[in-house]
Amino acid sequence: MIFVHRDADREGASARRAEIAAAAAGSGLLEPVVPVIPVRHLEAWLLLSEGEIRRAVGRPKGSAPLSLPSLREVEKKDCKAILRRALVEAGETSGRRRQKADTEAAFSAYRKILLERLDIDGPVRELPSWRALEADIRTAVSRLMSARSEGG
């Protein structure tokens, strides 16, 4: 099974899904391809747990306001910018430490931590993009199981 990540961005999930399917078909892959298509950015999935954001930056008991979007609005926002700002704010630092926390390297490291800790049974399951991913995984697994039972 191959997972292909592509943000929907302006083109939309359907266009990205078609793009991935065409590329997979053109490459001659035999393995099922599972499209991973967050509506705008993968970061939307990471904005759903204020506690995890605070833990990722080492301030689990922090109290700085993070201004995170609601579950209903998260897929409509510029999630990458919101997450970056929230991570800096959650660190509750100033001066050089704040500047260091606001680098691409720090953002990438924190995002990796959040992805590793993503609660797949939590609020992310409410998002249409996540539900589509789960359905695509079920379909791919079913195809694999059918191929195995047919001897292929």
How would the blueprint of this fold be written?
Blueprint: E1 2-5, H1 13-27, E2 33-36, H2 50-56, H3 79-91, H4 95-101, H5 104-117, H6 128-149
Parallel strand pairs: 1-2
Helix content: 40-55%
String of helices and strands: EHEHHHHH
Compute the CA-based radius of gyration. Answer: 18 Å
Number of strands: 2
Shape: elongated
The low-confidence runs, each spanning 5 or more residues with pLDDT under 50, are none
Distance between the termini: 14 Å
Strand content: 5-15%
Count of domains: 2
> What's the story with the biggest beta sheet?
2 strands, parallel
Polypeptide structure, described:
This protein has two domains: 1-39 and 127-152, no CATH class; 41-123, no CATH class. The protein contains six helices and two strands; from the N terminus they run βαβααααα. The protein has helices spanning 13-27, 50-56, 79-91, 95-101, 104-117, 128-149, and strands spanning 2-5, 33-36. The two termini are 14 Å apart.
